[in-house]
Design goal:
InterPro entries: N-reg_PII-like_a/b (IPR011322), N-reg_PII/ATP_PRibTrfase_C (IPR015867), UPF0166 (IPR003793). Belongs to the UPF0166 family. It holds the Pfam family DUF190. The chain is of the alpha+beta class. It has a single domain, classed as Alpha-Beta Plaits, CATH 3.30.70. It contains two helices and eight strands. The chain has helices at residues 25-35, 78-91; strands spanning 6-15, 19-20, 23-24, 41-45, 48-49, 57-58, 69-76, 96-103. Helix 1 packs antiparallel against helix 2. It starts with 5 loop residues before the first strand and ends in a 13-residue tail after the last strand.
Length: 116
């Protein structure tokens, strides 16, 4: 699979406690992205953050489960990201979704000319 050198980075900001039918929402999002054969997805767990409620979510030692922030990053072509958005809308009830144009320098094991 190739990603064009001009691609889209999709970032999804949710809470660790967010669920989809009992499963962690971040897991459902990644599995759906894989099912739709997007190039890849990465989940990042944040030690501190806040969202629309302005309530801090922290990973301090005495607070081990404080609904920490989670960020899912997916990079692929604009067409493939656009096809994924209706599924993402179906899965999410809150959170933040951003998209931005990115330049892909490397994907996979080899460097070389990338098709535009």
């Amino acid at each position: 699979m190739q990603i064009p050198s001009r691609a889209i980075a999709l970032r999804i900001f949710i809470g660790e406690d967010d669920r989809d039918d009992g499963r962690p929402l971040y897991e459902s999002i990644v599995l759906k992205a894989r099912e739709m054969r997007l190039a890849g997805a990465t989940v990042l767990r944040g030690p501190l953050g806040y969202g629309h409620s302005s309530r801090l979510h922290s990973a301090k030692v005495l607070r081990l489960s404080e609904n920490l922030p989670m960020v899912i990053e997916i990079v692929d072509s604009e067409e493939r990201i656009d096809a994924f958005l209706p599924e993402l809308d179906r899965l999410m009830t809150s959170g933040l979704i951003t998209m931005e144009a990115v330049r892909v320098l490397q994907y996979g094991k080899t460097r070389g000319d990338r098709p535009d």
